[in-house]
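Chapter review: from sequence to fold.
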Amino acid sequence: MGRDELDTLFKQYETAFNNLDLKTISEFYADTFMSAGPKGVIAQDKKEFEEKAKQAVGFYRSVGHKSARIISKRIMPICDNYTMVVVRWGVTFEKTGSKLIEFDISYIVYESANNSPSIIFFISHQDEEEAMEKLGLLNKKKEEV
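The token string follows.
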């Protein structure tokens, strides 16, 4: 898989994430893909992802999303058709001002001989909800007595 193709994919992904254009982001994923994080793993298809996109955009706007950009990425070929790309993201929110909130996501990208690259798996290294609570972006759920 070519470095140029991966650079292009993630540059377009960065622009879409910055603009909270989750419809475009869904185009970078395979028809079925998996996601994982500290709380577990889920498999979903692109249609499910797109159905949740409006909720996700609403959520990001509700926590004051201002911008997102790639700080760095490491590209590690696994074999001819698979590559792991570890992306360090920097995101700003209204409450955090210009301070970049940094987090890592590992993506497994597949490319067949006649298709453009597509993400088949991603792993969030941090618990997004927990991190947002620590930043004061979310109201902690009040425990019921």
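Two observations follow directly from the output. The CA atoms of residues 22 and 52 lie 9 Å apart. The helical segments are 3-18, 22-26, 46-62, 128-134.
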